[in-house]
Amino acid sequence: ATIWIAKIKNSTQLIGGYNPLDWNGSRYQWETTADSFIFNSTNGKNISTSKVSYVKKQNRAVFCNYNYGPTMGNIYCDNNNWSNEDRGYGEVYPSIGIPENFEVEDYEVFQILNAYIFLKTIFFNIYVVPPGVD
To answer: What's the pTM value of the predicted model, to 2 decimals?
Structure first.
C-alpha cells in the first residue's frame, strides 16, 4: 500500500492519496483498484477542513511509472509539474476542491507495510498526543 501527502505552495493546504498498491516504477500504465482515495485539507492545521473522495472510475485509480510523481485519476505529477484536470477520462475521483493548477512546496510518499500499525500510529498521533508534545 502507498500513501502520499503534498503541501501546496504559499498555503496551508494539504492534498494526498492512498492506494492499496505499490508504485512500481517499471510499469507505464494505469492500475485498477476499488480501494483508493484522495483527500484535501484546505487548512492542514485544522483536520475539520478535510474532505475525502473515493475512486469512481477504478480503471484509472493510480498511474505507475518512475518518471511521474503521485498520479491518481485527474491529479497528475509529471517532473514536479502538478495539475488536477480532466485528460479525457472524466471524473475519476469526485471533486473535493483541489485546484486545477497548483505548485507543490514539498511532498512525501510512504509505503505502508503493515496497515494496522500505520492506522494505530495515526490514531495515536491525532487523538491521544496533545499538540506540541513529541
So the answer is: 0.81
